[in-house]
Amino acid sequence: MIRFFRHYISLSMLFLTVLEFLVFYFASDFSAQRHGSVLPIKVALYKPLLFAAVLTLHSSMFDLYGWAWTTGLRSLFFRIFGSFSVSGLLLYAGSLALPEVFAHGGELVSAVVISMLSVILIRLMFIEWDRVDLFKKRVLVLGTGSRAAKIEELASQGETQGLNIIGYLPMGSIHSYVPRERVLTDTDNIRDLVEQFGVDEIVVAIRERRGGGLPVAELLKCKLRGVSVLDLPTFFERQTGILPLEAINASWMIFSDGFTQGMSRDVVKRVFDMVVSSIVLLVTLPMMLLTGLLIRMESRGPIFYTQERVGQYGKNFTIFKFRSMYTDAEKDGRPVWALHKDDRTTGVGRLIRRLRIDELPQTINVFFGHMSFVGPRPERPYFVDELAAQIPYFHARHSVKPGITGWAQVKFPYGASVEDAMSKLQYDLYYVKNHSLFLDLMILLQTAQVVVLGKGVR
User: How many CB atoms lie within 10 A of CB 276?
Assistant: First the structure.
């Protein structure tokens, strides 16, 4: 993993992205020469670049540069087929409109087929390469308690790609929550284990560090010998993009390299929001007019649904959405969590929710500065009071502007309970700690994938 603008990126996936971009470029260039296309030098240079950019962008939208595709061949082929189908249609439309810019005819078909077959071969080779422990970072975990068990759970879910966890050192702990065969009992000497197994990284998963519970002197010696030493929150932050609530505290948040705000960051984000919201409002105006007409034709009531939400620094604002429920959805006036296949939604409401069209009026909130395009989802005051009373650090998410989409929205299904809100907060805290324009752009790209694949719809 490398840290780019405070966000962790897998070196393997970065290498895969660059490799496939080059493959797409040369596939387009080869197909152009194969079909005898004679182009000016400038066009010959940017035409393959445009082809490669389109394919890479759609591969990213279908999460082919994340780890989801490694779960099985079915997931892999589904994502590849979806990505190349959408890319192919877009490139074909481009060739009709601008034939001098986009490949067309046999040249386009050849470039797409070569690229797709190359991607399948590269991915199958990547899966086999990822299984070889020789190329993985060797990790020693200190502790066998509940915190260490979360790392083992993470490994069983396939969230420790690129790592080989050699085992767990008890450190005098009586209780063990990890499998017995994974516990290292031959020695308590950390330096001996580091030399024996060639350890590259040590993760401290000990709850009690005072009174000699943490072997500071040994860890320092390992650190000075080039072995990386991480605490549990940093490990989870790097591997999963969350900050685990049970492993962080106020002092860790205060002294960590994050949770910072700045004038330059605010100005850049505000300019970005203003420009993008203006473009989105202009481009989607016909769709919004049609949606309003369909809502009015199906059921009585207002076209827009307004609701009070909690914004930055706890200030309330009115959010705008297309109405997707019947007007008597909350008859007794008490807020209710949205349910799976909610029977309070109208026919049009279910469709616009699935396509995320109901969220489009929130662009008005972005334009007026109540929200940003990217940030934690704003909650209703009723739920904020309820959740803040049960979940620690819940108000930390209000230190930035709420967003139409966010890190929690693209990483976690729709939340409809206190437990779900607690899980989503771990993603929100990661965003608050590491937010940047680069991370915002990544989230917007992954949001397109969520819309295309229909994830988290209620």
Answer: 16
